What we know:
The protein has 331 residues and is of the alpha/beta class. Helix content is 36%, strand content 15%.
Amino acid sequence: MVEYVKVPGTDIQVSRVGVGTWAIGGWMWGGTHQELAVKALLKAFDMGLNLVDTAPVYGFGLSESIVGKALKEYGEKDRIVIATKVGLEWTPEGKVCRNSSKERIMKEVEDSLRRLERDYIDIYQVHWPDPKVPIEETAQAMHELYRQGKIRAIGVSNYSPQQMDTFRSVASLHVCQPPYNLFEREIEKDVLPYCEEKQILMLFYGAICRGLLSGKINKDSKFSGDDLRQIDPKFQEPRFSQYLRAVEELNRFAQERYGKRVIHLAVRWLLEKSPLGVALWGVRKPEHLQDLPEVFGWKISQEDMQEIDRIIERHVKDPVGPEFMAPPIHC
Length: 331
């Protein structure tokens, strides 16, 4: 049975697993078939997931348009919570860079509303901090949209606690979206405890670490086109073999202890780490949702949480975070 959590400070309730559409649209993960993407979203809605996380930069508008098409076909637009983003722009050649200026935000929100075919956005998130623009300017623009009713909740992504403090001096902050998974735990030092203390919901992206924790990647897996994994250090030797060995043992552990597989263990682990945590599950086609039901309805014991840590420490001798994903500051 799907679990839900309320976004603190709002009347918004979201499923604790949300559909991530970064794989839909052709930027970062290669292209996708639009019809299959719509079917995947509709299947997620039918399964009880009510949160979709998207962004203009995914497919340079295509991902949001596909979400809008799925919402129209589904027919119950107000039941689905849309989390999209703002603050990245791209050149005609497809180069992506940051722009969190008020002017950019006010333009982007209208573009997103048009593509989503909606009058409001449930959760609007600043995609990356922009060193060129004062955080106060960005926060003020988001506050204006919130006051106008164009957005129902304000979020940031990839912000540090210090940046969130500055943001919160100007505007409310309801949601934070950081990278977090079994292999990428940097936020445990600062962002996670900060958000729990301040009662900020966290949308964890990279839940299965770009497929590493799916259990379906092996040493012969190949990545082509604009697939982000071509530049991910985890997918380069000697790290690649270290992570694959960890996944193999985690998979055995999940089967022996819980009758599950590593993908179920990885997402359940995220949900156990914080009551204010939501795991984002990337999909491009309906079959990508087949493992979802196995995530709910069970718990990982504290003893087993510690054993999971030991398994990873045994195999991953040269860990690396998701820093490579940060877009350039200038186009």
